[in-house]
Structure formats: C-alpha cells, structure tokens
Amino acid sequence: xxxxxxxxxxxxxxxxxxxxxxxxxxxxxxxxxxxxxxxxxxxxxxxxxxxxxxxxxxxxxxxxxxxxxxxxxxxxxxxxxxxxxxxxxxxxxxxxxxxxxxxxxxxxxxxxxxxxxxxxxxxxxxxxxxxxxxxxxxxxxxxxxxxxxxxxxxxxxxxxxxxxxxxxxxxxxxxxxxxxxxxxxxxxxxxxxxxxxxxxxxxxxxxxxxxxxxxxxxxxxxxxxxxxxxxxxxxxxxxxxxxxxxxxxxxxxxxxxxxxxxxxxxxxxxxxxxxxxxxxxxxxxxxxxxxxxxxxxxxxxxxxxxxxxxxxxxxxxxxxxxxxxxxxxxxxxxxxxxxxxxxxxxxxxxxxxxxxxxxxxxxxxxxxxxxxxxxxxxxxxxxxxxxxxxxxxxxxxxxxxxxxxxxxxxxxxxxxxxxxxxxxxxxxxxxxxxxxxxxxxxxxxxxxxxxxxxxxxxxxxxxxxxxxxxxxxxxxx
Length: 477
Hints:
The protein is an alpha+beta fold. The protein contains 13 helices and 20 strands. Helix content is about 35%, strand content about 20%. Strands 6-5-4-3-7 form a five-stranded antiparallel beta sheet, with no helix packed on it. Helix 8 (about 335-350) crosses helix 9 (about 365-385), helix 9 packs across helix 11 and helix 9 runs antiparallel to helix 12 (about 445-455).
C-alpha cells in the first residue's frame, strides 16, 4: 500500500498536532458571544484555556490501552495508522511513561516496532472498541464478497491454520523478541518473532557466528568464539562452485545443531513457517559468497530428506522439492532468490521428477516463484514458437476440449520439472490459455510473449548445471 497523505504537522509538548495554515483569509480571530472581536489579552487567555484543556484531555488518555488505533510518525516522516499491540513501562519514567509496540495497518507485520509517545498523534486516538463487537458490527455492513476479501487478507501466508490457530499464532508471535542481529559484516534488523531459548528473552540483539551459526548475547563472546571456531564454510558437502558462488548440502541428521541454529535465524525473517526442532528430516542447501576469509551465507532452502522418505516408505504425493526458502535481507534484490528456486528445480531434474514448493509461501516467496515460473515458461514458448510436442496420455479421463492443453502442460512439466498445476495457474494469470476451435490451447503470439517477458523483469543468476556435482540419494543407495 502507498503512504497516506497527511496534513502538515508541528511538534508541540512532545506530541504532533496539525499545523495552523492560512487559507486565503479563512482563519478568523476569536470573538465574544455577541460577535465582537476579543482584545489581544482576552485572546491569549482563551488560547491558554484551550491549551490547558487539550493537555488534560491528552493526559486522560494515557497510558494508551492495547488495541488503541492512532496515527504514528514513521521513518519516512509521515503519519500512518497503527494499532497498539503491546506496551511496556519505561525505566526511570513517570506513571504514564510507556513505550508502545505498534502494527502499521497498511503494511506487513515485518515493520511492527516499538515507538515512543512523541511519535504518536494523540489527537487522532480512536476509541478502543471490543474487537468481537467491532467485527460483528462491521460484518453486518459488508457484502459477501467484501467479507471473503477481508478473510483472505487476514490469513495471507497462514492458509494451513484455522481461525483459532491463527489467533493463537498471532498472540504468541505478536511482539518481536530480538530487534537486531549481527551476522558477519552486517547488522540486520529482524522482521518477526523467533522462539529462542528462554535465557535469550532479555536480549534485543544477538551475535551470530556466520560459519557455524552459534549465537551469543555479547560481542565479546562472539570475538572469543571466532578465535576458536575452525569452520570457514557451512558444515556439509560443497555440491556447486561457480566463480564466487558456492552451494553446500547440509544433512540435518549429521549436523543437528547447525540445522537448529539455521531455523532460529530463518524464523526472524519468516512469519509463516513452523520452526522444526527435529531437523533430522531435512536437507539444507546453503548458498554462499566466497572470498579469502571464507564462505559467507547469502540464503538457503530446505527440503525433506529423500532418504528419510524412502526409509519411512513415504512418497510425497505433492512432489515437494522445497520446504522453506530465505534470502537474507542484505542480499535481497540481487537475483539470489530466483537462483535458489532454479537450483531446487535442477535437483528435481537430476532426480527425474517434477517438483513444487510446500505451501504456504511467504509474500516475498510467492513473488519470487511467480517471477521464476513466468520467465522459464515464456522463454520455452518463445523458443519453440508455441509448437510444444505433445505426449498423449490415454489412462486419464478428461474432457476432449481440454485434452490438447493437458498434454501440452505435461510436456512443459517434463521440460522444466515444474508441476503441471503451477504451469497452468501461471499461464492463466498471464491470460495465455485460450479456447479456439473447440479446444483449449496455449497462446504463443510472439508480441504477447515479448510484452510479458518485459513485464517479468530480469531473471535471476543462472545456474551453471555443468558445475553441479550431485547424485540423488536413491542412486547413492
């Protein structure tokens, strides 16, 4: 959402009030009951009385209750609507001196933060209403379509949770427990709550070893640790090296502490994922930038161990090739996210199967996947000029009008390792599925494809398959 346009404001007595502006002579001086203008002395008395009344009214509001809605000055200098999520008393303050943890209702929860009273415009405070009553009243005024849109917004990224579980999740994770972390040469502001062990509850900042991912409370502890830590890259096998980029495969069963630390770290930037303490089930693929000091983590993705699935005699009907994906904030917008996605599909090709990411995806993850699917499919359609060879399937009953399209989707799936359902939803979103001469077909008009490719933007970093040294577990066995 965009920022709100708000009136010009000035600071008064620690709170923001609308500035008085002149509108072509519209401003009128105070007058008496019979309309006569007040003297300058009387005007000052009236203004002082109004100022005193304003102070009393504001003081009566404090401290603000949890659930209060108010305007808050953000880092862009503008005021935005917020909801008070939590409050805490300030040390060495008066009875009404609190800090407030607020959610900017226009934006994602990752921007929630603690703010001081002077950042809040107390003149904009809305009366606190019981939320159940408020929801009931609001729902009576909404159409069915509007209700559905609101419900979809509330559970974005939490589609696997029912309403009760969602409320429990939001209550448990409503306040970020760690404000910043230090990882290598970066100090990074966190986005979300992560359930670190209780002894870290009083820490606003944590210090991570960028190689083994152990975390500490103080800088001195990290410095002592770095003198002893003999790792210069993630523990595991290096399966890819191209230029300064390396990919390491880390088995959660063999490197349990590293896997758990990676999950703690990732949860600080992922709101929608459950933290798995049993990392034995997972393989972690950690992408690094390498220099003479070592291999520095850029991001990672994880997936369930194929070996574990085989031992349990379980085969995922969903063909998941990725459980979780994260590019660390300092490395975002550099093409690494699409590189991680592309790498997961290259592994699927090596395994000889199609893949799809586990749901739900985060908002940024969904954008990355849509961008990747769009570019890969458009490139193939443009290269083949729409003439995808058809591999007919005779053992599935589908309408005759859809048979041609169905087989085209299967052929695209074989070529890309992208699941047919993901291909279909991507082509539908691009409006490339059309009904012609009694059957559904993929539209591959060159001008249309070029327009969509331009809108899709640049692709991510390319995976050089010749540099991938990796054997699927079933072949190793």
